[in-house]
């Protein structure tokens, strides 16, 4: 295959090679809009996928494969969307990463910086074995890691612009099984709650939901449905909008029999909102979540959910990173970790009146 050059990217966009070079260098000098256009074009043309096309003289490949001396892995988890080590979800993934690295006598440096200019100060390729990115990460940060030739694996996130190995829970299949369980109980009016643009995991869960309903000839929400684009799913900002929506459905006698929430945090807040407006769970509406965070079990009633093996995802990410370092020529992989249904008291068969 013919090598893609910076000049070809420049010609494609109608800009100078100098602008392309600046945009891809990570050193600034071009505005954000232009930089994003360059990155997008470079990705579409296959520039990033080329061997060594974007790496600085292979700074770590020769020294890292033997894992000699003190080696560290950067764990990048920008402090956005409640992505912190204290999180009931993200914290467990970090624990898995830490345990696997410790078992291999490797160090870990956690970085929560979300700005490129600050992030690059902690990057020292000579002392870094690789990087594991956890959760939502801006493309500009990932681009800087890619530019330096540092091997990386992403957990619960992927970037369309930059080729990497990724580790996810098997979101689509898991929610497909959950919906089939609900339909087996007799539910025919199921509704998905979340924001399908929030993350890849949410989109995959929505896809699994839709597939399950279509396979059983049940009506699915329109893509424009406001409950698929909830505001502030991580902060609870969506609750007033949900309360207004559910009361309107109740007034028109069109209540769903089951609400399939994109994660446990949404399910817990939805349960509280239903209680506030006088709707019983699970007597009138079944609620399910996803992730199996500790608060889902402590909730009243405890939330039926999907158990995501969070620590196992973290450990698998470390093993995938080691595989990538030892076999840099392998094709990139998307690893799906199996998840299991957890049946609790927030779900039940619909009542006879429904």
TrEMBL record:
<dbReference type="Pfam" id="PF00356">
    <property type="entry name" value="LacI"/>
</dbReference>
<protein>
    <submittedName>
        <fullName>LacI family transcriptional regulator</fullName>
    </submittedName>
</protein>
<dbReference type="InterPro" id="IPR000843">
    <property type="entry name" value="HTH_LacI"/>
</dbReference>
<keyword id="KW-0805">Transcription regulation</keyword>
<keyword id="KW-0678">Repressor</keyword>
<keyword id="KW-0238">DNA-binding</keyword>
<dbReference type="InterPro" id="IPR046335">
    <property type="entry name" value="LacI/GalR-like_sensor"/>
</dbReference>
<feature type="domain" description="HTH lacI-type">
    <location>
        <begin position="4"/>
        <end position="58"/>
    </location>
</feature>
<dbReference type="InterPro" id="IPR028082">
    <property type="entry name" value="Peripla_BP_I"/>
</dbReference>
<keyword id="KW-0804">Transcription</keyword>
<dbReference type="InterPro" id="IPR010982">
    <property type="entry name" value="Lambda_DNA-bd_dom_sf"/>
</dbReference>
<dbReference type="Pfam" id="PF13377">
    <property type="entry name" value="Peripla_BP_3"/>
</dbReference>
